[in-house]
Every structure is written in structure tokens, then in C-alpha cells.
């Protein structure tokens, strides 16, 4: 070595691109601060977790204590009473007496459904068609009740009022109606009129529902219908309709309750039915308001204002003004002087003046026959007086309202004061009831004056219908509906109403009710108070101080109400709805054969009598979210052939939802039987322990989380496969297989090149094409084409290949290996053809493609050609190497006679590593010979006539798999002298291609390793997908690019997109498998069983069993690692490549999901899921998923008996309606009925389960079809974008809108009273939103069909049941079609996709996500760039059952400002972001900078943007 300079290889030279550290300094600092904070606060984490669960989760868990069993009240729920009322209404005519808001409409809807379904059966049997009638007392109630019933019942119905077309009064219309419809909603007056004219007969009616039945007295239309038409049928013993009356009170006046109720029962031919325990509703979800009084004083006596006096002089004798003169005078004390004058402006309009003139003219026309001339004169004077009075009123100057006793009365002043103190305009809604329409109009007008409107009052009015006569201030029906809608939507927050707002009309979301004028009857009192339905509502009554009449009225009304409350004690026992707990001991004693279960281990005994108590204890141990529809056990008792059978329904959070008991002789025993069956189920599945106490709080969900949790933080070191198995085959080969390596765009290289051949001992699979990047923004794809025909090796062939390969390694890459061709894993060979694909893959002999002349030349040249002996004509286009410095290599261009070796060197030649301070390298000769050691240089003779060659310096080859930066592109031209250099025998065009080998071989080896791993799994994946699925290109691939650490450039796509796809298919496939194989499992158990299959822990463990972690690609391109293994290195720097890598447990699980996604995409074009299913089976490795092809799913499904049983006519009707709407005909109508059966509707009625299992299935199907669309429609979108926009497609908000647009909600059957009105309100709101969007489109000239499809984003969330039935319908569609996924795809394309043709309109939906919203606010509003949100596991060893918890914290300028705990990173981040948003909601920029020590530069932020 002393005599020969050491030849350094190019890998020893600095220049390799290291892994990129993104924001390394700030991120590392923040990570350190975050983990320090976690460590310092670890002792508090367990407490914090518990607290956050209680505060953020919206649920309160009550732990069950066996010692408290006897104290747990086993109350009957409201549903139990509603169900029994419904059952009784099916058997006989009843008047349901229930308080306002307790679900009378639900009972009516259930009975309507029952009667109509029976009617459909009768029609199918050929019987005469009949109609059901829902009768109301007021026109406005027609619209309201139709809105509720139409939104919740799927039967054809019609509604009409007196304003409807006269066509309703024709026989043809009613004949058509009975054939096409099943029910009608109208005022009783219309039905009575039609009955009178014989257009419809009582025999044509199957049900009469009387809303507010207490009106049935004297000559009211309710009474006339019964007296004149129903009673006559009774006498003739003919077929009569069923009757259901509904009222909050059977009386509406001061009368004897017993007499009134007896008269009402006799008149309606009904029996009153009410609850024996009126407190049952107050203990449930019916919120009664707190009552209070507001006292006022009437100080002044009525007087005449100046305006009153002037007007009275002109028109005081005109009868049309008499009522207003009286009201205006009384108004001075009741409302005040300002209102007394203001009423003239409101009432005496130009339109009203015209009406009075016309009325006056009609009056005098009747007097014509007496004294013609004087009468005409008087008529003219009277009409002129009206006009003069109107002009006077218009010219009168009305003062601006002032809130003092000069302008308003003490009563109005007290109203204003009370509202100012108790009414929050931002959150509250108030209704003020007054007796007269003028008072309502004046109060609404008063609160619209500037003095009050600026305080946030948005006042409106509601009063009865307008008439054509003069003096009427009524509202049209459309005005009434508009006022109620504005109040519901919050555009009005203070509504002044007459009695029109008391009875029946549903004024939603009201929490303050004030009686400005006292009620006159108990029914007015009850119904006006019933308008306040929100929690913590208040009901105020304004009474005059020291007015004994007021005090006496209040006392009488309250006494009357108490009498009504005690009404149940006066009724016979058969009129009372007693519930299933009434006299239970007596009924149990009558039946001796009760079952008993004894726990073997403890001796605890389960009996009929004790089972309801034990079940109540279990229910009390469940967490109860605020939005839960029910929090108690509900019992539905059904009369079956004279016996009773009961079904018990538990809250949705319960692991088991329902159980049906055995039949019994009484409903009380039937209830105990159902409770007994439920307790047995709970014990069997270990939700009751051996002492029959609840274990729910201990085992769910913490137990599952503990078993199934996996760490995203924990990292372990695993062996890493560096080379493919194909390289392990050694020995002197007898035949070789060729892989042609070509560039698809060879011009991008910048010089002429030829393809190379990779020769291997076995046929390699085709690998994926990939790009490589050159200078000047040029790139080309590399294609590796395996040829199936082998090359039979002739003598000397292998030696030639070996020599050529070794020459490339030595001359180009400065690595000299011993010639051991039996150890060489692969060989390289030059090809004679250009990069032309057609020629390279021709059917000819592969041997013919090889440039044998080049190989022989290399063989003949042992150590390279000395440059000194080269003549001028061969110096062009040569590859020249520096044997003393492996980093200095050149392409010669031409000889330069005009340049001397003593001339200055061009800047394109970098200094050699041999350079030391004091060395002279400015001239050409010195810059070339500097690579020698100094002693050798000193001995070297400088030849002044040494020829100078213009050459191109070959710079250090960077990572060609990553794009060039502009700084990398420099001019490589330089001058060389050939004294110390050598010319390689390798042709320049081969060298140019060979320089790409490090990147090419790295990518080929990665792809081969991943393909080998897939082959071991039995998966024949597309090469590019296999590599993508197993590529992890940073330490935290799952994070956003800006937060990723140690990004390995040039690895290609990582697994994240495929993981997004595979996760969805994994969910789908396991869901279908569970649904098919476990028919009796409820939704809760489905979720648990599915989590066992798809959890990361299971995937991780199975991946380790399969040695998958060895083949995951985590190491980026490294120039020192691509060289062939197993050879003896003679010269060059030896590098040790890493043979292990660190992986997080979750990363390994993520790769499993990505491989499932890759399998899905591999066969995507073939429309088959078989390979993806095989991948799922491999990775879940569980008996519940052994499928290998798609057909195995339906083969595992056995059609249950309830599905294939004979449908009723109503089921066929449902299927026909769905076929008409959706275009799909169901083979199993009962399956379709299941899709619309709400959990509150017991299976005991029809033997059909609720929709929750189908919803579970449909949810997975919907998720998959949406993910499939997004993944393929947006191939460049990152996983976060895909996830955020999928959220919009599967959100409850959108699915609720879709449900209404398809009218699916009409088909749902439920027994939840509040749900019906919620649905009706949402249907009205979303329909109005769509109409508004259509109006906008039309106004913009686009046409109504071009409306913005994202209109649903502006509306409130729908009731949960609406998105549920969309998912359950999809599930039913899938099952009915024998698992035809194309039906699901068709549903998506037809009904969902039109809303999402432009996904970018939903960017704002994603931006409303708390984390995204926080990011936007911090960046755009506060211009803060130094913040991040970080998460980690809490690692609490002593936490109960070691359940994994995640803590997320928000750091701003290196300080933790907010944090939250949750079961997953997603929810922990969400909670922390919400808390942070609440903290910065109302602060200014200055406050933000002060509080958070923020000094971020605004202008620099804008530059960055």
C-alpha cells in the first residue's frame, strides 16, 4: 500500500442524501416536553381518566350494590302504559286521558297502523274498502297532524280542510279515495258534511280518531257525527268503526267531573282509560314546568286619549268602530296610553277602511225603501267620515315608545321586567298567552319596537284564522304555519299567542310560558302550561294584586286539576291502566308452576318474583348517555288467544336487548316470566355473576379494551430481510433467466444508453415499474421485463457474465470482488438493442439480445487501458476512471489542442479527498494528479505537452428515486490529463445505464422481498400493490407529512392509502361472516365478536406467526446496501448493512390491513373479492372467518323462519311501495319489514326482529362502497383527506337527509312517542332546506335541478333512527339479493353518489371537525405556527384491568395548554381540541399572544402561506 495509492470507492465520499428530519428541532423539543409532562402528571392520570369519562362521555355509570337491591324502584315506564292503552284500543272504544306531552299521538299512530294493516288484509280477501279518519277541531291541526302522521306512517293518506277544492264534495272523489287511500286527516266539520250528503257512510269507515275529544258535546261536529250516524248503526247492529278519543282532560269547563265524564263516555260510545299512577310520566322523560306568579297593579281607570276623542267625533256612531273604541279605552289601563293609540294603526289599515266603507254601504242599501234622498245623503256622509277618520289617523303623530308609566301600563311593565330578568334571548324561547287578538298583536308589536328589539327579543304572533268580515286581525293558515316554523327554527324567540296556540298545536322547544291573561277553564290551564316542554321550563301566571277574583280563579282551577288527578280513584278498575306490577303477589300466587334457577356455585336463587328486581339492578348498572331513548327496562305485554305474553326491552347500551317470556294467565306473571328469561340470558353470558349481581361495569368495555388493545407507542426490534430468496441460490448455473431492465424514456438520462440484462438462476416474477429522476427535471420509468425462455449456458458464458458484472462493480462503483461465479447471486449483461420494448420482448432467443462483443472485450481487458497509449481518434466518448480516487470518474468529450495542462481548471471538477492545505490544484495537471499521495505526486514528472481532454465529470450519483433539487444541477464540464487515469473497457452507453443500478436493484430487491412474503401467504398480488402495502417510509407513517420523522425519501407510496381501503374491507368481510354464521346474536355481541377479529392485537399476533415483520420495508435507499452478498471484497470500503429494524406493534397490524387492501385492488378489475377474502382469513385466523371465496358467505347463511314466513298484506304493500320508489323487488317482504322495525317496537307483535342486526350489516356495506369510491376516484388524495370526506358520506347528518329524500322514514314502525314528532320536525326542516337550495339555483339561472347537494350540512342532526334505517335497508337489500354486492353498488350510484359528484364542496364539512377547526383558527385567526397536538399511551400499570388509555395534549409554544383522555387517539385528540376551542372562543389577538406567549410573526406567516 505504500507504493500504491489507496483506491477509495465512491460510497466513502460524502454526498448520500440522509433521511429527512422534518422540523426536527421543534418536533424533538416538543416531544421531549410532552413526555416530560406525561411523566410528571402520571400520578394524576388515573383520576383524570375517570373524570374525563364522566364529564366528556355524557354518561353516568351507577355501580350496582346487592345491598341496595330492595331500594331500587321497579317503576313501570311510560311505554308500558302506552302499550297497554294501545292493546285496549284494539279491543274496544276508549278515550285515552293522558297529560299533555305523554304520547297520545303515539297511541293513535299505533292504532292507525294496526287498523290499516288489518284493512289491507281485508282488501286482499276481497272485502269492501274502508277508510280511517283522524279528526281534529281546528284547521291548523290538520296540517300539524298530517305532518306527523305522514312522516311516520307509510300508508297512502290524504288531508283536506274547508279551503280545499270543492271536488271533495263529490261521490266520485270518495269512491276513488277509498280505492287508493287508507286514511284521511281532516276537520270534523268536513266529515260531518260528507256524511250528511251521503258521499261517505259510516260503513265505509274503520276507525275514528277524535283529537281533543273533550269538545264532543252539544252540537259540536264531534257530537253530531256520533249522534246522527254512529249511533244509528248500533241500533241496526251493523258493522261500526273503532273509536279512539284523546284528551288531556275529559272536561273543559267548570262542571262536575263525574257527570261530565259519564256524558262524554255515553256520547262517544267509549270508555275512559287512564293510568292509575299519574306520576309515572313525571318520573320519566316528561318535563313539567316550574310554576310561578307575576303580580301587577292596575293603577289608572280607563280614559279617552286625544286620538280616541278626535276619531270618536268623526265615526263614533258607526257600529263598525264600536268594539275598537271600547277596546282602545280599556287598553289605557290594561296595556297603556301608547298601546291605546297604537291599536288604531294596527287595526285601521287602508284595507280595513275599504271593508268598513263596503259594510256601511250595505247597511244603507237596506234602508232605501224608506227615504231615498236623505238616506243617500247620510250614506255619503258616513262613508266620507270613514275616509276622514283614516286620514286623521294617518296624519296623527305617534310618539316613540318609552318604557315608563306614561306610555305603558304597570302590567306590561312587569311583563318586560320579568322577561328581562328570566329570559335569555340566545338560549330561551318564550310563549305569552293573551285572550284577545288585538292584545296579542299589540304585545308582539311592542316587543318589536327599538327599545326592546335591541335587547334580543325577536317577537312574533300566533292567532286564529282570519275571516272576511271587518275588524278581524286573524292570520291565514300559511301565516300561522310560517310563525310556528320561525319559532321552531329560532328566527323568533318570543311568541305572543291567543288560544290558537294552547290546544293541540305543537310549539316545540319552548321553556318559558306566561299567561298574560288568566285562563278561564282547567283545560286552558293544562294545555297552555303543556306548551313548556324543555327541561327546567317555567310557567308564569300574571295576576292582579289584591284582585280576589283572580285569586279565586287560580284556586278553583288548581282544585279542579287536583280533582282530575284523583280521577283514577273514582273510575272502575277495568277503566284503569294498572301496569304489570299491580297486585303482583296475588297473580303470582294463582300460578304454582313457576320456574326457579339456582346458581350451583353460590346457591343464589332466581325466581319469578325476584327477577324484575334483579333485572332493575342490572339496568341501573348500565351507563346512560344523555341522548338515550330509554334508561329502564320496558315491558310489552301482548294478548295472545286469551293469554298474555311479554317481551322485555333493555336500553340500547345493554349487551342483550330483548327477551320474550312464556305465556301466562295474567300480564303480571307474563312480565315476571320475561324478566326471568332475560336474567337467564344475562347469567349465561356472564353479565350477572354467581350472586346475580351485574358485572357489566367491570367487563364492558374495559375488559375488551384490555384484551384487544395494542400500542402505537411500543416499538420492538425485529429481524429485517435484506435480500430476496432468489439471491440465495448459488452454484455454477447451467441455465439462466433474463430480466430486461429498460427505461421507458431513455432521453431523460441526457446521454445515449442501452438496456441491461439481469441474469438469475430462477425465473423472477414481474416487478412493478417505478420512476427514477435525473437532472434538469427529467424522469423516466424503469421497467423490468422477465423473459420466460431460459438461456442455456455454453462454455465460457457464465465466466463472461461474471467478468462483466465484476467490471461494473469495480470500474463504476469502485468495489473489487474476487472472481467467485458460483457465489455470485445474479449476473449483469449488456444488451445490443436500444430501449425499444417491442424488440426486447420479441419471441426470439434471449441470447440474441446480449452484446457478446462487449462481454469479450471486457474479458480481454484485465485491468483497464492505460490512457497514455491511446491515440487521438479513440479518446472521444470513453469512460475514464481515476484508480487512486474512486469518486473521480469521467466521460471524455474530445481532445482539446488549444488547452495546455498548465491552464486553469474549470470549476466543474470538485477537489479530491486527497487535497490538503497547501496543495496547489488550480491548474489542470495538479487538479487531476492530486488524487495521488503527496510522495507519489512529488515523484511524478509533469509533461508540459501532455494532451488535454475535455471531459464531463460524473458527479456522485444521488438517490435517483427522489427528485433532484435545483441546487443539484451544476455544470460538470472539466479538463483532464490522462497521465494517472485509465480508460475502462465498458462502453459509455452501458456505463450510463449501469450508474442507475443502485436505485434499480434496491427497488427490485424490495419488490421481490414483498412478493415472496405475499407468496408465502398465498396471495398473488400485483407487484406495485404488494410493495406499497409493505412500505413504511417514516418512524410515524400514520401522522401528517409535516409531523413525520425520519422520512425515507424515494421509497414510493407507503401503506397508508391501502390500509384505509383494507380496514374497510376487513370490517365488511368479518361483518358478513358474523351475520351469516350467528343468526341469534344481537348487535352488541356482533360488535364485540367483530372487534375480536379485526382488532390490531389479533392482526399483530397473527402477523408475527407469519413472520410478516421481516419483509416490511422500512429502510430507504442506501448506496452501500445494494451490492451482492456473499462475495469476497478485495478492494473498496466494506459497509455493514442493517439486518434489523424497529417497528411499532400497530405498524405491523396496519400492514396486514394494507395487504388486504392490496388484494382487493389486485382483483378489482375482475369484480371479485376472493383474494381479499383469503387475505382476511389469513390475518384474522379465527373460526368465525374461514371463507376463501365470496360465495362462502351466502352458503353459510340459513334463511331464518321469520324471514321466509308468509307475509301479511301490509308487508306486500310495503314491498310494492319500495319497488316503486327504489326499483328493487324484495323476495322476502318480512325481511324488508325488519329493516324498518325500530328497537322500541317489540318482536312480540309480528315475530320480526328489529333492524339492529341489519343496520350492523348495512353500516359495513355503506362504509365499503364509500371508501371504494373515494379511493379510486381520488388516487392522489392522502388518507386524512379520504377519511375526512368519508365522514361526510357516512355521517348521520347526510344519511338522515337521504332517508327523508327517499321517504324511508314513513315505513318505520316504532313505539317511541317523542320520536314521531322529532322525525316530523326534521322532515319539515330538511325539506325546507332543499326547497331553499332549489330556489337559490333557480335565482342564479341554473334551474331547480342544479341545486347545491350539500344543503343538508346547514341543518340540525336528524333523529338517530333515520340514518339507522338507511343502513338497515342496505343490509336488507344485500341479504334479499343473496349477498349481491352489485345491488349495494347500484344503490350507492343511484341515491348517494349524486350528492358527492364534487367532493370539494365538503371540504368545509371536514373543516368543522374540532381538530381541523382548531388548526384553521390558530393558523388564520391568531397566526400561530408554533403549536401541535401530541398523543401517547398513559402506561398506567395499576389501572383497572390494565385497559389502554390515550392522552392527547395540545402544545402551544412548548407548553401543554390542554389535554384529554380517551380509549383511542382519535377521540382523545377530538376531546382535547374541543376543550381548547372552548378556551379560545372569545379572546382577542392581543389576549392570545399574552396568554400563550405567542410571538409568531404575522408577515412571515403570510409569506409561508
Descriptive notes:
With 1505 residues, this protein is of the alpha/beta class. It is built from 54 helices and 40 strands. The strands form ten sheets. The chain has an eight-stranded parallel beta sheet with strand order 4-5-3-6-7-2-8-15. It has a six-stranded parallel beta sheet with strand order 9-14-13-10-12-11, with helices on both faces. Strands 23, 24, 25, 26, 27 and 29 form a six-stranded antiparallel beta sheet that branches. α35 crosses α36 and α42 (1209-1222) crosses α43 (1229-1235). The chain is elongated and about 140 Å long. The relative contact order is 0.08. Residues 1-24, 45-77, 280-285, 698-707, 1436-1443 and 1499-1505 have low confidence and may be disordered.
Q: Quick one: how many beta strands?
A: 40
Average pLDDT score: 81
Q: Could you tell me the strand content as a percent range?
A: 5-15%
Shape: elongated
What class would the helix/strand composition place it in? Answer: alpha/beta
Number of helices: 54
User: Which strand order do you get reading across the main beta sheet?
Assistant: 4-5-3-6-7-2-8-15
User: Approximately how much helix is present in the residues?
Assistant: 40-55%
Largest sheet entry: 8 strands, parallel
Q: What's a concise summary of this model?
A:
The protein has 1505 residues and is of the alpha/beta class. It is 43% helix and 12% strand.
Amino acid at each position: 500500500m505504500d507504493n500504491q495509492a489507496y483506491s477509495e470507492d465512491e460510497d466513502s465520499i460524502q454526498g448520500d442524501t440522509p433521511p429527512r428530519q422534518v422540523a426536527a428541532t421543534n418536533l424533538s423539543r416538543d416531544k421531549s416536553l410532552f413526555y416530560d409532562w406525561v411523566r410528571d402528571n402520571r400520578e394524576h392520570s388515573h383520576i383524570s381518566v375517570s373524570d374525563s369519562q364522566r364529564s366528556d362521555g355524557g354518561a353516568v355509570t351507577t355501580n350496582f350494590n346487592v345491598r341496595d337491591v330492595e331500594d331500587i324502584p321497579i317503576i313501570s315506564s311510560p311505554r308500558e302504559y302506552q302499550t297497554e292503552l294501545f292493546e285496549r284500543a284494539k279491543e274496544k272504544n276508549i278515550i285515552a286521558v293522558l297529560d299533555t306531552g305523554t304520547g297520545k299521538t303515539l297511541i293513535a299512530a299505533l292504532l292507525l297502523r294496526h287498523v290499516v294493516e288489518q284493512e289491507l288484509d281485508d282488501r286482499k280477501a276481497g272485502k269492501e274498502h274502508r277508510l280511517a279518519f283522524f279528526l281534529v277541531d281546528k284547521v291548523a291541526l290538520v296540517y300539524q297532524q298530517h305532518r306527523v302522521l305522514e312522516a311516520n306512517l307509510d300508508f297512502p293518506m290524504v288531508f283536506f280542510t274547508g279551503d280545499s277544492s270543492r271536488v271533495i264534495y263529490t261521490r266520485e272523489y270518495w269512491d276513488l279515495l277509498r280505492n287508493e287511500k287508507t286514511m284521511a286527516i281532516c276537520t270534523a266539520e268536513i266529515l260531518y258534511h260528507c256524511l250528511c250528503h251521503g258521499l261517505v257512510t259510516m260503513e265505509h269507515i274503520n276507525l275514528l280518531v277524535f283529537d281533543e275529544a273533550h269538545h264532543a258535546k252539544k252540537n259540536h261536529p264531534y257530537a253530531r257525527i256520533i249522534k246522527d250516524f254512529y249511533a244509528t248503526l248500533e241500533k241496526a247492529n251493523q258493522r261500526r268503526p273503532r273509536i279512539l278519543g284523546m284528551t288531556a282532560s275529559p272536561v273543559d269547563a267548570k262542571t262536575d267531573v263525574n257527570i261530565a265524564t259519564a256524558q262524554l263516555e255515553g256520547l262517544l260510545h267509549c270508555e275512559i282509560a287512564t293510568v292509575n299512577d299519574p306520576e309515572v310520566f313525571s318520573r320519566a322523560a316528561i318535563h313539567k314546568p316550574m310554576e310561578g306568579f307575576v303580580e301587577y297593579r292596575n293603577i289608572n281607570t280607563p280614559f279617552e286619549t286625544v286620538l280616541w276623542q278626535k276619531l270618536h267625533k268623526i265615526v263614533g256612531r258607526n257600529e263598525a268602530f264600536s268594539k275598537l273604541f271600547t277596546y282602545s279605552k280599556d287598553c289605557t289601563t290594561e296595556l297603556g296610553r301608547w298601546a291605546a293609540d297604537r291599536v288604531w294603526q294596527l287595526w285601521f289599515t287602508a284595507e280595513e277602511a275599504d271593508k268598513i266603507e263596503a259594510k256601511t254601504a250595505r247597511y244603507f242599501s237596506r234602508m232605501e225603501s224608506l227615504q231615498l234622498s236623505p238616506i243617500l245623503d247620510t250614506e255619503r256622509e258616513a262613508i266620507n267620515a270613514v275616509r276622514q277618520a283614516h286620514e286623521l289617523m294617518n296624519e296623527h303623530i305617534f310618539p316613540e315608545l318609552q318604557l315608563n308609566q306614561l306610555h305603558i301600563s304597570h302590567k306590561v311593565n312587569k311583563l318586560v321586567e320579568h322577561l328581562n330578568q328570566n329570559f335569555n334571548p340566545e338560549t330561551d324561547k318564550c310563549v305569552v298567552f293573551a285572550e284577545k287578538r288585538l292584545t296579542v298583536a299589540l304585545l308582539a308589536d311592542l316587543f318589536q319596537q327599538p327599545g326592546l328589539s335591541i335587547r334580543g327579543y325577536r317577537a312574533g304572533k300566533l292567532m286564529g284564522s282570519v275571516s272576511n268580515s271587518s275588524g278581524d286581525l286573524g292570520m291565514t293558515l300559511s301565516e300561522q304555519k310560517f310563525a310556528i316554523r320561525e319559532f321552531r327554527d329560532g328566527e323568533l324567540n318570543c311568541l305572543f299567542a291567543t288560544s290558537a296556540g294552547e290546544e293541540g298545536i305543537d310549539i316545540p322547544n319552548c321553556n318559558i310560558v306566561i299567561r298574560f291573561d288568566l285562563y278561564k277553564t282547567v283545560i286552558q290551564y293544562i294545555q297552555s302550561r303543556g306548551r313548556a316542554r324543555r327541561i327546567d321550563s317555567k310557567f308564569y301566571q300574571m295576576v292582579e294584586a289584591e284582585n280576589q277574583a283572580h285569586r279565586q280563579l287560580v284556586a278553583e282551577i288548581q282544585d279542579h286539576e287536583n280533582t282530575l288527578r284523583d280521577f283514577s280513584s273514582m273510575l272502575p278498575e277495568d277503566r284503569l291502566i294498572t301496569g304489570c306490577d299491580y297486585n303482583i303477589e296475588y297473580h303470582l300466587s294463582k300460578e304454582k308452576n313457576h320456574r326457579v334457577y339456582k346458581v350451583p356455585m353460590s346457591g343464589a336463587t332466581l325466581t319469578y318474583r325476584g327477577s324484575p328486581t334483579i333485572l332493575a339492578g342490572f339496568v341501573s348498572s348500565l351507563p346512560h348517555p344523555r341522548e338515550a331513548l330509554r334508561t329502564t327496562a320496558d315491558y310489552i305485554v301482548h294478548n295472545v288467544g286469551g293469554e298474555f305474553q311479554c317481551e322485555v326491552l333493555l336500553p340500547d347500551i345493554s349487551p342483550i336487548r330483548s327477551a320474550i317470556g312464556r305465556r301466562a294467565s295474567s300480564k303480571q306473571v307474563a312480565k315476571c316470566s320475561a324478566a326471568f328469561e332475560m336474567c337467564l340470558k344475562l347469567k349465561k353470558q356472564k353479565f350477572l355473576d354467581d350472586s346475580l349481581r351485574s358485572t357489566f361495569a367491570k367487563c364492558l368495555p374495559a375488559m375488551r379494551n384490555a384484551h384487544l388493545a395494542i400500542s402505537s407507542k411500543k416499538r420492538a426490534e425485529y429481524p429485517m430481510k435484506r435480500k430476496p430468496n432468489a439471491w440465495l441460490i448459488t452454484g455454477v448455473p447451467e441455465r439462466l433467466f433474463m430480466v430486461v431492465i429498460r427505461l421507458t424514456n431513455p432521453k431523460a438520462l441526457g446521454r445515449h444508453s442501452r438496456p441491461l440484462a439481469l441474469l438469475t438462476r430462477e425465473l423472477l416474477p414481474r416487478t412493478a415499474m417505478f420512476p427514477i429522476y435525473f437532472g434538469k427535471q427529467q424522469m423516466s420509468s424503469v421497467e423490468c421485463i422477465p423473459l420466460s425462455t431460459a438461456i442455456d449456458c455454453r462454455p465460457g458464458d457464465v465466466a463472461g457474465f461474471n467478468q462483466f458484472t465484476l467490471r461494473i462493480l469495480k470500474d463504476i462503483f469502485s468495489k473489487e470482488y474476487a472472481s467467485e461465479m458460483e457465489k455470485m447471486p445474479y449476473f449483469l449483461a449488456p444488451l445490443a438493442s436500444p430501449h425499444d420494448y417491442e424488440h426486447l420482448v420479441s419471441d426470439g432467443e434471449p441470447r440474441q439480445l446480449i452484446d457478446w462483443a462487449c462481454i469479450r472485450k471486457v474479458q480481454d481487458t484485465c485491468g483497464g487501458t492505460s490512457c497514455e497509449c491511446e491515440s487521438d481518434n479513440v479518446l472521444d466518448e470513453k469512460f475514464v476512471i481515476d484508480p487512486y480516487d474512486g469518486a473521480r470518474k469521467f466521460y471524455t468529450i474530445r481532445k482539446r489542442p488549444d488547452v495546455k495542462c498548465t491552464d486553469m481548471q474549470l470549476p466543474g471538477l470538485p477537489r479530491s479527498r486527497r487535497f490538503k492545505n497547501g496543495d496547489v490544484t488550480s491548474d489542470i495537471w495538479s487538479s487531476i494528479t492530486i488524487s495521488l499521495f503527496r510522495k507519489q505526486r512529488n515523484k511524478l514528472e509533469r509533461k508540459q505537452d501532455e494532451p488535454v481532454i475535455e471531459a464531463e465529470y460524473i458527479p456522485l450519483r444521488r438517490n435517483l428515486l427522489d427528485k433532484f433539487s435545483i441546487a443539484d444541477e451544476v455544470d460538470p464540464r472539466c479538463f483532464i490529463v490522462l497521465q494517472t487515469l485509465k480508460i475502462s473497457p465498458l462502453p459509455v452507453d452501458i456505463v450510463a445505464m449501469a450508474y442507475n443500478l443502485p436505485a434499480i436493484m434496491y427497488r427490485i430487491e424490495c419488490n421481490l422481498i414483498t412478493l415472496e412474503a405475499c407468496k408465502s401467504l398465498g396471495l398473488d398480488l400485483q407487484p406495485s400493490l404488494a410493495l406499497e402495502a409493505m412500505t413504511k417510509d417514516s418512524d410515524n407513517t400514520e401522522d401528517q407529512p409535516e409531523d413525520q420523522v425520519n422520512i425515507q425519501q424515494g421509497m414510493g407510496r407507503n401503506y397508508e392509502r391501502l390500509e384505509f381501503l383494507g380496514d374497510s374491507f376487513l370490517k365488511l368481510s368479518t361483518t358478513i361472516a358474523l351475520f351469516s354464521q350467528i343468526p341469534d346474536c344481537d348487535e352488541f355481541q356482533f360488535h364485540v365478536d367483530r372487534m375480536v377479529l379485526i382488532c390490531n392485537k389479533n392482526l399483530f399476533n397473527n402477523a408475527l406467526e407469519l413472520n410478516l415483520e421481516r419483509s416490511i420495508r422500512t429502510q430507504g435507499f442506501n448506496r452501500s446496501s445494494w451490492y451482492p452478498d456473499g462475495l469476497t471484497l478485495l478492494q473498496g470500503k466494506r459497509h455493514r448493512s442493517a439486518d434489523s429494524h424497529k417497528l411499532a406493534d400497530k405498524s405491523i397490524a396496519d400492514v396486514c390491513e394494507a395487504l388486504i387492501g392490496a388484494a382487493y385492488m389486485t382483483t378489482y378489475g375482475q369484480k371479485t373479492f376472493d383474494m381479499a377474502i383469503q387475505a382476511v382469513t389469513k390475518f384474522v385466523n379465527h373460526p368465525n372467518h374461514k371463507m376463501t371465496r365470496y360465495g362462502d358467505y351466502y352458503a353459510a347463511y340459513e334463511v331464518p323462519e321469520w324471514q321466509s314466513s308468509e307475509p301479511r298484506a301490509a308487508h306486500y304493500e310495503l314491498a310494492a311501495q319500495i319497488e316503486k320508489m327504489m326499483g328493487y323487488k324484495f323476495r322476502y317482504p318480512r325481511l324488508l319489514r325488519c329493516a324498518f322495525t325500530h328497537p322500541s317496537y317489540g318482536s312480540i307483535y309480528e315475530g320480526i326482529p328489529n333492524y339492529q342486526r341489519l343496520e350492523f350489516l348495512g353500516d359495513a356495506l355503506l362504509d365499503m362502497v364509500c371508501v371504494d369510491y373515494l379511493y379510486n376516484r381520488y388516487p392522489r388524495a392522502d388518507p386524512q383527506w379520504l377519511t375526512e370526506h368519508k365522514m361526510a358520506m357516512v355521517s348521520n347528518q347526510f344519511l338522515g337527509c337521504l332517508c327523508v329524500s327517499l321517504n324511508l322514514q314513513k315505513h318505520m314502525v316504532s313505539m317511541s312517542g317523542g320520536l314521531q314528532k322529532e322525525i316530523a320536525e326534521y322532515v319539515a326542516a330538511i325539506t325546507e332546506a332543499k326547497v331553499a337550495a332549489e330556489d337559490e339555483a333557480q335565482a342564479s339561472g341554473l334551474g331547480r335541478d342544479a341545486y347545491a347537494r350539500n344543503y343538508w350540512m346547514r341543518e340540525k342532526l336528524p333523529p338517530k333512527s333515520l340514518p339507522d334505517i338507511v343502513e338497515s335497508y342496505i343490509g336488507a337489500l344485500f341479504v334479499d339479493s343473496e349477498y349481491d354486492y352489485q345491488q349495494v353498488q347500484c344503490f350507492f350510484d343511484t341515491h348517494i353518489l349524486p350528492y358527492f359528484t364534487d367532493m370539494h364542496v365538503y371540504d368545509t364539512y371536514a373543516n368543522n371537525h374540532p381538530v381541523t377547526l382548531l388548526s384553521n383558527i390558530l393558523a388564520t385567526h391568531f397566526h400561530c405556527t408554533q403549536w401541535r397536538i401530541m398523543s401517547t399511551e398513559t402506561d398506567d400499570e395499576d389501572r383497572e384491568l390494565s385497559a389502554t388509555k390515550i392522552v392527547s395534549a395540545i402544545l402551544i409554544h412548548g407548553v401543554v395548554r390542554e389535554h384529554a383522555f380517551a380509549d383511542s387517539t382519535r377521540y382523545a385528540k377530538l376531546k382535547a381540541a374541543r376543550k381548547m376551542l372552548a378556551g379560545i372562543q372569545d379572546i382577542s389577538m392581543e389576549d392570545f399572544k399574552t396568554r400563550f406567549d405567542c410571538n409568531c410573526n404575522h408577515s412571515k406567516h403570510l409569506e409561508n402561506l
